[in-house]
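Re-run with default settings, no changes from the original entry. Doing this only to confirm the output is reproducible before filing.
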Amino acid sequence: MKALIAMSGGVDSSVAALLTKEQGYDCIGCTMKLWSAEPDPSDDPSIVPAPKKTCCTLDDTEDARSVAYRLGMPFYVFNYKREFREKVICPFAASYERGETPNPRIECNRHLKFGRLLERAKVLGCDKVVTGHYARIERGEDGLYVLKKGLDPSKDQSYVLHCLTQEQLGSILFPLGGMTKEQARRIAAEHGFVNADKPDSQDICFVPDGDYAKVVERCGSGEGLKEGDFVDLEGRPIGRHRGIIHYTIGQRKGLGNTWGKPVFVTAIDPVANTVTLGDSADLMRREVTARDFNWISGRAPQGSIRCTAKLRYRQADRPAEARAEADGRVRLVFDEPQRAPTPGQYAVLYDGDIVLGGGIIV
């Protein structure tokens, strides 16, 4: 059996490579070149280089290469920068211009890590693609693959993997799904990996210093940059905003005015170019609809089902009832109101620790 290991230069993917090799796989290490921290003459000059503290730096590639060579594995760098721009950066900018708040990590997983990389694995004759995600894959008695939460709740990454299909799950290994981050670091230190104590990357690689609006300004169409009205819940103008790309549902800071009381962004209308402000209580919703829904099993359930659901990555999943509609959307009704469901983010459904699927909140 042969495996292609996606190595970011971090400790997780390095330990995943080690564990896969110890399982007897013939391993090939690779890094996907999606972004450059340093300017590249071949790049589109409109894109902002990433700060050096994010992922995808030259140092990250060299760390991955060091571990691969230490494990006696061949190592390659695959250039997918054009695909990354087309499938992740441009849709990210367009989403903000529609008044949404996107999650580019999920789109990167969908199109690059478990899209293009699986294609490359087949070309190389590999049976599996391996990553350092904290999640588990099992196969049920019915022959279907099941995606489950990682055993360490503090590191579980199943939320960002809900886009996987049955075919993809059959070709993927997550060796870290049953361990903690501390165990992974200890294994890395015991084997002398250069990145054993390397901090986790927190930022999005193509968003310098967390300035999302700057990326949208340079990579988008120009929509969403015009000033417009802040309005109250009745639609009456109460101030001026800087352009809808600067705001997200639930935002309190950076509104640029003194309102005499705490106010929050409760809605964004890209057609009217308005941003609605209200009280904290106005953010609460029991009903949420999601589009472009992917059911892990490959088929939607009939009728309503009981489940739990997450509306953002770091949120605990909450009890709800879900129904798949005829148009492919999924309607969620939570037992208790949820704060600030945000268009562009993802609603991900669970049955215990099993991921049922997920879609984009509308």
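The CA atoms of residues 135 and 177 lie 4 Å apart. The first strand starts at residue 2 and ends at 6.
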